[in-house]
Specification:
2 copies of one chain form a homodimer. By secondary structure, chain A is mainly alpha-helical. Helix content of chain A is about 75%, strand content about 0%. Chain A has 8 helices and no strands. Chain A has helices at about 5-20, 25-30, 45-65, 80-95, 95-110, 115-140, 150-170, 175-190. The first copy, chain A, is elongated and about 65 Å long. The interface of A and B includes residues 109, 124, 155, 158 and 180 of A. The structure holds a DNA duplex.
Chain lengths: ~200, ~200
DNA sequence: TTGACAGACTAATAACCATTAGCTATAATG
DNA sequence: CATTATAGCTAATGGTTATTAGTCTGTCAA
């Protein structure tokens, strides 16, 4: 791993824990194992690190949720749908880097319009669009009752997002949160799927 | 208004816009119209202001959402339920102080366990409990289909919370968000209410 | 009238912070 | 081999920050 990547990694950790204003370049340097001025061999300044970080965060998100293709093949039963969705949730909740990106974004969402926009895309837009597509396809296959796919996607994802945020804030509830999410998913399917 | 209250007001504004670490005591003093050292006649330090602020935020929240009584009398029709719920949402979205408290909490939710706990209570616990009680009562009156009241409360409130967060981040979508919330509310009633 | 107190002020301090300048050693390149 | 770039370092700088000490003024009670 290059020094540059090490800087980005450690900075993500620090920003997610203490925020941009709560982190000093000296702290970053110390975690990386260099002195603060050496950071300037790799970045123009603190804000430059922030921008590079958000770029990589976007790339990482795109990679995981950017397209409806990432759901794999279309589920063909209720249990399959639930299983795949739960797997997605588990990945999102337990992946360390994604968790840090989430906390980092939540903290800095008001910093600029760009941050606000990206946060909205991460928290609502992106995943919702993905599920809207899947639900629509499953409607066409007669697995879901006819309804507004993007509205249903919102009904599906919003409680999940809220619960994940709770788990981020209070990790002691992680287990409970995962159970509640599964309960919600089953209820959602019971209400909106056929038969 | 006492100087102490003026300090709390201006600090809430600044913290909601720039966060705790992004706000200096000098900025606070300037907004209040005094010099920074004079703040120490009213508070022990910056952190003391923060704690006093969270106390008043809790009081304000308790006052608005703390008890199921605050819904007024039980709604007796679908339209009445939607109307009252929408009014609550409008109040929450457009009240300036509540909006600032919300942004302030979102920013500082990771600062301590107390902040995390309060944020969870504000965003999920409190309102959900309130609606769970109402939905349960309305089930007993035959207005809602039989189901798990607190699960339904989550299905009801989560999308609303998500949309409000979006409106906080991107005020240009406020109007659209209000429309989407109403759409969600109508859909919710269509699915879970009788007839 | 006197004295005490609340609440403002100025001045000062010690710490911290982001950044720049300039030096050095090592590794890559011609 | 010469040189050029990379990437580390120390030292220093100018700015900001939270906080303390000590002073002054007005108000109100004794």
């Amino acid at each position: 791993m290059t020094t540059r990547d090490k800087i980005l990694n450690e900075t993500l950790t620090l920003f997610s824990e203490n925020g941009y204003d709560g982190t000093s370049v000296e702290q970053i340097a110390e975690k990386v194992g260099i002195k603060a001025p050496s950071l300037y061999n790799h970045f123009k300044g603190k804000e430059d690190i922030l921008n590079a970080l958000i770029d990589t965060a976007e790339a990482r998100y795109e990679e995981s949720f950017g397209s409806e293709k990432h759901f794999g093949k279309l589920p063909h039963s209720r249990d399959e749908f639930i299983a795949i969705a739960m797997k997605k949730v588990e990945f999102t909740v337990f992946d360390l880097i994604i968790g840090k990106i989430r906390k980092f974004l939540v903290r800095e969402q008001f910093r600029s319009e760009r941050f606000a926009e990206i946060t909205t895309r991460h928290q609502v837009g992106g995943v919702q669009k993905m599920y809207a597509k899947i639900i629509e396809d499953m409607m066409n296959e007669g697995l879901f009752k006819q309804d507004d796919p993007s509205l249903l996607a919102m009904e599906l994802t919003s409680p999940v997002v809220a619960m994940i945020a709770k788990a981020d804030r209070q990790p002691q509830y992680r287990q409970k949160v995962m159970q509640d999410i599964e309960k919600h998913l089953r209820h959602f399917c019971a209400v909106y799927m056929m038969g």
